[in-house]
C-alpha cells in the first residue's frame, strides 16, 4: 500500500465526519427554537434597562433603534451612549428619543478609556448608570421583534448569568452582503444552533441580557476589558461564578443592507482573531465546518469508490450547497439567484480569513484599527 492509499482513507474518514456535522447542525438549526424554548421557564418580567451603544449611522439605523421602543414589555427604560457628543448617530438618536416620550430615555457621553475594545469603553457609563439591575444591550443593526425582550427574559433563570441570541442576516442589498450572510447564516449559525441544542452557551454580542449584580460579582469591566471579544469574555466570567451563558430560543435579525468586501473581510478577521486568542481549540476546529476542506477530502477519497476525483468534488459541493439552500428556505432566510457564486466566494473568503488570523492582532473596529489584546488598564471605580 502506498502513501496515496492511506491519504485517501484519511480523507474519507474526514469527509464522513464533516458531513455528519453538516447534517446534524442543519437539523439542529431547525429544531433549536423548539428544544430551547422548552427550557425557558421564567414567568415574571422584572424592570429592564435597554442599552444602545452608538458609533456609526449605518443604513437602517433609525428602524433598528426604534424597534427597542416597540417592545411589548411592562417596564423598561432606554439609554444610549456614544463617545462623540455630536455625530450623525447621536443626532438621529435624539430625534428617535423625541418621538418616544412615553419611555424614560437618556443619552450618555462615554469618557472611559481603559479597555482594548472601544465598545467596552462605550458601555461603561450605561452599564454602571443603568436604572435597573437587569440590562439588555442591543447592537445598532439588530432589529427586535415586539416580543423579543419578553422572550429573551424567559431564559434568564436563577442559574443563568447571560442570555445571548444567535443572529441571522437579513435585508441583503448587494453581493458582498449576501457573502457575509452566507458566512453568518451558514457555518457560524449552524454550529451555534447545534451547541445550543446540546445545552451549551457562548457570548455573542448582538444582544446581551444579564443582571448587573452578577456582572459585578464576576469581575465587572476588569473581566472583559482585555479583549475585543468582550461578549465571550463575559460568558467566561459568568461561568466562573456558577452562572451559565445560554442562547435564547429566539434568534435576532441582523440587518446588513449594502456592504463592501473590505468591511466584510475585516469584520470576519476581527472575530476570527478573537477566537484564535480566546478560544484556540474552537479556532483550530472551525475549518471543519467549512466546505472547502470537505471538497479537498472528496477529491482525495473518490478513488476509493472507483470514481474520478472531480466527481468527489462535485458530489460534495452539491451536497453542501443543497443542504444549506434548503435550510435557508426552511428558516425563511433571504436567498439570491447568485447563491452558487456566493457559496464559492464565501469559502475563499473564510479560508483567507482563517490563514490571515494566524498572522495579526491588528483588527478593524468601526473604521479604526485596534489591537485585539492590548493591555487594558484597570476599570474606573465602579459605583
Q: How large is the radius of gyration?
A: 22 Å
Globally, the shape reads: globular
Query: If strands are numbered along the chain, what order do they take across the biggest sheet?
Result: 3-2-1-4-8-6-9
Measured as a percent range, the helix fraction is: 40-55%
Instruction: Give the topology string: H per helix, E per strand.
Output: HEHEHEHEEHEEHEHHEEHHHHHEE
- Structural category is alpha/beta
Mean pLDDT: 92
Number of continuous helical runs: 13
The proportion of residues in beta strands is: 15-25%
Are there runs of 5+ residues with pLDDT below 50, and where?
A: none
N-end to C-end Cα span:
70 Å
> Which oligomeric state applies?
single chain
Q: How many distinct beta strands?
A: 12
Major β-sheet annotation = 7 strands, mixed
What topology emerges from the helices and strands here?
Layout: H1 3-37, E1 48-53, H2 61-66, E2 76-82, H3 88-98, E3 105-109, H4 118-129, E4 134-138, E5 142-143, H5 148-153, E6 160-164, E7 167-172, H6 175-197, E8 207-211, H7 212-217, H8 230-240, E9 244-247, E10 252-257, H9 261-278, H10 280-285, H11 291-301, H12 309-331, H13 339-357, E11 362-365, E12 368-371
Parallel strand pairs: 1-2, 1-4, 2-3, 6-9, 7-10
Antiparallel strand pairs: 4-8, 5-10, 6-8, 11-12
Helix pairs in contact: 1-6, 1-11, 1-12, 6-13, 9-13, 11-12
